[in-house]
Amino acid sequence: MQVTYWAEHAWLGTHVEPGVVIEATDGRITAVRTEVPSPPPGAVTLRGLTLPGLANSHSHAFHRALRGRTQVGSGTFWTWRDVMYSVADRLTPDSYHALARATYAEMALAGITCVGEFHYVHHAPGGTPYADPNAMGEALIAAAAEAGIRITLLDTAYLSSGFGEAPNRHQLRFSDGTADAWAERAAALKPAGHARIGAAVHSVRAVPADQLSTVAGWAEERQAPLHVHLSEQTAENDACRAAHGRTPTQLLADHGVLGPRTSAVHATHLSDEDISLLGGSNTTICMCPTTERDLADGIGPAVRLQQAGSPLSLGSDSHAVIDLLEEARAMELDERLRTRTRGHWTASALLRAATADGHASLGWSDAGRIEPGALADLTTVALDSVRTAGPSPRHGAETAVFAATSADIAHTVVGGRHVVRDGVHQLVPDVPRALADSIAALRG
Ligand SMILES: [Zn+2]
Question: Of these residues, 155, 176, 297, 317, which one is catalytic?
């Protein structure tokens, strides 16, 4: 199948070009032509600024059901987690499928073309496997297909509640018992055209140190992405030091978890040596600024990590909001507040985290660029909305990153297919209703 798009403006990795033709065949870009002032016959017009599709590198789809309700009262990450577990307790393959389909449709409307789903709700409550032990993961893969986006299912090993502690009653359904049993179940997951399979270590709290290398080896064997929550909370650092005399980063390094296929999520509370280990191993850092501020985590040292050698990616994680443009600007703006200086990243550098580097962290290094050979995944930001009208299109990247929101996404194209057209999802007819119904069903 061949399709031709004409982008009124397109960001080509470093700068904005007016009038760009993007031709795609069978889901991949075959030609990119600049200096085309008007749409050629038969081309589909993308009015606004077209970017490569956005990669949401860290998601827990079921957290979408927490929006609003976790904003009542005070507390910490740990009290938030209690509410989160009350939702996790209620999920079934069917109810999770419905919620994830709606959540991924919201992502498509926000210009996200690929999601990294950090998935650990594997079994029935109490820990009994479903008849199909991968029923939950397969529900997520099907949900992404129905919402029209790509997914990397990061099947997550979650075996313990803390250092030397068995899973609590909420966590029993996350656990396969041992990393070997996790590996056997995860090996049965099948990739698809829109879906790739990766691995995750939930955290150093949730996978005993002597089993970390089993998960790392599984990913190594398949050359698959490997993700891990890292040092989001100082309590995790303290417990890890007490149990092992090492920081979580040192422990991961000791057991072969770090490296260029690995992404460390959050990486908020790090020592100088941790930063050297992460950067020196080219481990990607996935920052989730809207979640990190929502959960009162702190601000991770993203500038220093990148200088040390770590690529950066972005994720909406707990889905307090789903807006990759907001994640991108929040990384820069948090750094401004901390340092009282501006301009740590250019708009183009922030967009690279949201596109090419994010896709690479999810095992889609063939996506995230508008160039021949890349997957034909595109996102168009309107430049004529109440938020974006006015600036010169030459400053379209700056306008998109620093002023636009997900409400300004006009078009989303995945593999050449026009999934969101003029702000309307073409596959899920009423996304707000799908969200409301699937979340209401979980309230019982
Ligand atoms: Zn997370």
Answer: 317
Q: Identify whether the C-beta of residue 18 lies closer than 8 Å to the C-beta of residue 393.
A: yes
**Could you tell me the CA-to-CA distances from 188 to 60, 158, 212, 258, 385 in Å, in that order?**
21, 17, 20, 25, 46
**CATH architecture, domain defined by 2-52+367-425:** Roll (2.30)
DSSP state of 53: P
Q: Single out the catalytic residue among 266, 344, 359, 411.
A: 266
- Per residue in 233-247, pLDDT tens? 999 999 999 999 999
In the chain, domain spans: 2-52+367-425, 54-361
CATH second-level architecture of 54-361? Alpha-Beta Barrel (3.20)
Residue 154, classed as helix, strand or coil, is: strand
Q: How far is the CA of 267 from the centre of ligand 1 (A)?
A: 11
The question of whether 266 is a catalytic residue gets the answer yes
- Return residues with CB closer than 5 A to ligand 1 (ion): 317
Which pLDDT band, with edges at 50, 70 and 90, does 83 fall under?
A: confident
